[in-house]
Amino acid sequence: MKIGIVGLPGSGKTTVFNALTGRKAEVSGYTGGKREPNLAVVSVPDDRIEKLADRYHPKKVTPAQITYVDVAGEVSVREEKGSALEETLRHLRPADALLIVLRNFEYPGEPPDPQTEIEALDAEFVLTDLISVEKRLERLEKDASKGKKSDPMELELLRRARDLLNAGTPLRSDTEIARSPLLKGYAFLSAKPCIAVLNSGDDSDMGTVSLSLPADVPVVEVKGRLEMELAQLSPEEADVFRQDFALDMPATMRIIQESYRLLGLISFFTVGEDEVRAWTIPTGTQAQKAAGVIHSDIEKGFIRAEVISCDDLLASRSYADAQRAGKVRLEGKEYPVRDGDVINFRFNV
Ligand SMILES: Nc1nc2c(ncn2[C@@H]2O[C@H](COP(=O)(O)OP(=O)(O)O)[C@@H](O)[C@H]2O)c(=O)[nH]1
Ligand SMILES: [Mg+2]
Has residue 266 been placed in a domain? Predict the structure, then answer.
């Protein structure tokens, strides 16, 4: 999963990036700082995979991974062509979801205004997408006048997208457009699922700000700078601090959980002496399709999936024991994989 971190300059994007990844990227704030994005791949913490690894002592443990990219530039369509915008977009387009960081701490003389910030950013997304849609429509209309045929469905979806954007509506509010395979290639920013990250000051009383956001944009409050400092400590030291500050789950966990929920993703596991590994798939993925996430040959030659829930497996003394107790099921290609399934695919090559 790829997650882009966006926000106005000085909102704390790099601070949140550091909190999420344990990196020490330069926090520069209003000065703008460097232009290159910060990129990091982090493992998704999951106690199920840790327990499975304790059981199997495999040579390799491979948790699910998330790539975070903190784009250095501001998303602003007002910037010149060939400018930071294109660079920023190049990094944001492939993102599966966006974290919108909103400043909720005081700068001297500048009280926080997260509501205005998110509205400004959403307006930028809408405008950026509108420009792409209009360019594309112009192109298709030109082609049509030369007698070249275009996909009428794509044309119709693009027109609908243009109407929404013209009305200032982000494309994510229309699920058909937001999820259409025909429009996927455009990677519209306003179509991406978003999480608002309310970056609160160290001592602010969290939860007092009332943000009015669309229902499809969940809010996660974090004390960005504090979380960044905690991310530099050992897990044990960080735990002590968390208790002292009465902080709940690390921001990392809350943001990851929210991302999985928002994107409708679940994990299944494969186990063995060589490797214990987590795989990420959309909710409802059928067994044969899930096999393809591991390797296309397993999908093609799919025979059956041997399935046991992670909890059942961990509650049994061994896989063989679980099998004897009838806990391991044989499922066909249409079986919808569930979160936490441990799967052994049987396949022909
Ligand atoms: N008090 C406070 N300051 C913060 C917090 N997060 C960021 N800052 C400060 O705000 C400035 C901008 O942060 P930075 O992460 O560089 O913002 P960016 O421009 O969005 O990447 C820096 O001086 C940070 O130390 C926070 O949670 N609380
Ligand atoms: Mg920054």
Answer: no
C-alpha–C-alpha distance, residues 265 and 282, integer Å:
4
Query: Ligand 1: distance of its center to the CA of 260 in Å?
Result: 26
pLDDT over 60 (residue 31) = no
Yes or no: say if 70 and 14 are a contact pair by the CB < 8 Å rule.
yes
22 and 77 part of one domain: yes
Gap between the Cα atoms of 54 and 96, Å rounded: 32
Residues with CB under 5 A from ligand 2 (ion): 13-14
Provide the 8-state DSSP code for 223: -
Q: Are residues 62 and 100 in the same domain?
A: yes
Nearest ligand (C-alpha, residue 10): 1
State whether 292 and 225 are in the same domain: no
CATH number of the domain to which 99 belongs:
3.40.50.300
| pLDDT given for residue 83 in this prediction | 55
Give the three-state DSSP class for 247: coil
| Of the candidates 22, 29, 2, 31, the residue with the CA atom closest to the CA atom of residue 103 | 29
* pLDDT tens by residue, 270-322: 999 999 999 999 999 999 999 999 999 999 999 999 999 999 999 999 999 99
pTM, to two decimals: 0.89
Structure tokens at 227: 């979380």
Q: What is the pLDDT of residue 29?
A: 53
Residue 86 confidence (pLDDT) above 80: no
Best mutation site among 11, 21, 27, 100 for ligand 1 pocket (most ligand atoms within 8 Å of CB): 27
* Count of domains forming the chain: 2
Q: Domain containing 317: what range?
A: 284-347
